[in-house]
Amino acid sequence: MLQNVKGFSKLSKEEKINWITATYFSNQKEAKDILINYWNSDENLQKLHDEFIENTLTNFYLPYGVAPNFIINGRSYTIPMAIEESSVVAAASKAAKFWGERGGFKTTIINTEKIGQVHFLFHGNSEKLTTFFNKIKPTFFDDTQEITKNMQKRGGGILAIELRNKTNEIPNYYQLHATFNTKDSMGANFINTCLEQFAKTLENQAQDYIDFTFEEKNIQVIMSILSNYVPNCVVRAEVSCPIEQLSEDKTIDVNEFAQKFATAVRIAEIEPYRAVTHNKGIMNGIDAVVLATGNDFRAVEAGIHAYASKSGQYSSLSHVKIENGIFTFWLEIPLALGTVGGLTSLHPLVKFSMELLGKPSAEELMQIVASAGLAQNFAALRSLTTTGIQQGHMKMHLMNILNQHQATKEEKLQVLAFFKDTTISHSLVVDYLEQIRK
What we know:
By secondary structure, the protein is an alpha+beta fold. 49% of the residues lie in helices and 18% in strands. It contains 16 helices and 10 strands.
């Protein structure tokens, strides 16, 4: 049985690798070579990457691609995407070109509020707590003035603070529920710093409040933390065109296609099993851009999926309507993104992405990301309701199968030619590859 290692974080990078490879790998040299092969040859650049997180051994690569031909509010974009899944970039690019020829994507920022909370227990009279809160409310703003002054210069800051009584759910449980505008930064550090000061102010002011009993003075702060659920930081993206322009394929009945497409969306609106996969397709586009721009895709995922459940049942993030011969497809999603701070000023490829996008503001990036998600969803639904999802996906996946089986350049050409108009599956590709080799 392996023993826990002591002081691992204090070991040098080389010592960490030696311990890992010696402890877990039968071929220590091969394992070590794999790690070293992914190091950057530029020592300064590698050091930068090593210091992003703790216990770094090497770099983990994702393909970094671009989807051109996006027209968003009349402006042309080539969108960076970092993702491992076959066909995502191709599908987004194809949908972007299709809608670019039909007026492009129209986007609107609905709101940009972000939320943070101080969670605490108060053992006492709730009316007395409300009176106390209203009396000291200006102090929360005063005590955070040094923290917020730079954000205020940029037009952001603390928007509101309210007391919320949650004692029906948990005995003695209350919240300070605060809203913020963090402008072009995602704002997590700013919000959390403000919240921690709110907690100190709450505790200190309670100690000096003469109308509280001894027990009431001892407010117990449980935690102070931002929320990744941002239902008031929302962007809308939509596309529309006359039904007769919905397909470039003359063999497709556009009216039938429009109705099938609308029904597919309606199914995702009422059926959670379908909605999860439907929304995962949207997130293929969203996460890829969020990653490429150095934002927190886990926070985005959590917030968006919570938003998809706001009605009490998990449902589609996108919607469609057909009125007076016009097909309109849209989504509304919460997105808390930043274009300054964090990795945006450190990671060379993130800086490359930002310049590629024209150095967008946080609101502009919200609109770009939402458009990528809508494009991806349109591409997936178009495939599902016409040729089926596997035709395009498996053609993109074909190269992965060939690489997995170490096909030569000549073998790849033969396989690609054979499967040009043939159904693709992993077993069929392997069988045909074995025939060539025989």
